Amino acid sequence: MISLKDITYKYHNDDAYALNHISIDFKRGSFVSILGHNGSGKSTLVKIIMGILLPTSGAIFIDGKPVDRDNPLELQRRFSIVFQNPDNQFVGATVLDDVAFGLENLGVPHETMVEKVEAALKEVGMWEFRNHEPHRLSGGQKQRVAIAGALVTNPEVLIMDEATSMLDPDGRKEVLSILKKIHAKRDTTILYITHDLREIEDSDYVFILRKGHVVNEGTVRDVYEDTETLVSSNLELPYNIKLSKALCDGAYMSYEEVVERL
Ligand SMILES: Nc1ncnc2c1ncn2[C@@H]1O[C@H](COP(=O)(O)OP(=O)(O)OP(=O)(O)O)[C@@H](O)[C@H]1O
Ligand SMILES: [Mg+2]
Q1: Which residue among 76, 107, 205, 227 is least enclosed by CB atoms within 10 Å?
Q2: Helix, strand, coil % in the chain, rounded to nearest 5
């Protein structure tokens, strides 16, 4: 669906490249994770994909057609994004207003808007909170509202840019399980950005970024089995991965396989 060919980007002339000859493809309907330590270029890559930044060199293709560099809106229409800090993205006084905002901007008729907002809030389990102030919700609830706001315009791609990194473990689980449900139910492509290896287990495909380079890519099993690259990319190996490698002579086992083996 989206293909980035040899993308480089530097913020200012004198800076080092934030992205270095990145080529990435992802399929429509897939759940793709981009994993990398602080400053590895994840958010820069997201901005390029969304058409917010123009690459210094390289090209982007959608369904095989090059994206018109002079028309970044062509990209932006297709994407919705949920950011890291839930408090920075609310615009409405109530949960309901907030989720309706994106549709108001598109000039959607009132009746359709009411239906869509209700459906989106029910999808993330936040309908009963519709009259609450967004700022008074828990971190996980805030991100669920942000996901509803992102989904209500029916984007082709939902981007989560470290959207769970400020949440406690329960909040993380809550958000990841909602995402899994959404992915199973709709054909939305999900681009999941994280620095946390524990969060990629359900991805169809994973890219690892280090200092603006893609240093590994493949299935979850492929990237977990190359421990050296994970360590040299400053990614912390979670306990279950260390355990699975110890039990299985360095090979990776999924959570279920570890339980089975134990
Ligand atoms: N607005 C900017 N101006 C100049 N340099 C920038 C700017 N934004 C990011 N950079 C630099 O580009 C590189 C990549 O940053 P980016 O924000 O894409 O990384 P990231 O992987 O998203 O990091 P984090 O995990 O902290 O969110 C870093 O070296 C960073 O210092
Ligand atoms: Mg970032």
Answers
A1: 107
A2: 40, 20, 35
